[in-house]
Amino acid sequence: MFDPDIAPSGTLLGLLQRGRGDGTLHALAAPRAEALAALNHCVLRDPRHDWQVENRSLYYARLYLELDGGLGEIEQHLFHMDDLFDTAEERTGLALAVLGHLASYGRDDALALLRRYAATGGSWAWALDELALRDDDAALTALGASVLARFPAGPEGESALAAAVRDAFEPRPWRLWAEDRRSPATAARVRAAQEQGSFDRWQRQLRPSGPPAGLERARGPRLGPGGPGPASDPAPPRPGHPLPHRGRRARGPAGDHRGRRLRPRGRPRHRAALPRRAPRPPRRST
Question: Are the beta carbons of 255 and 58 closer than 8 angstroms?
Answer without folding.
Answer: no
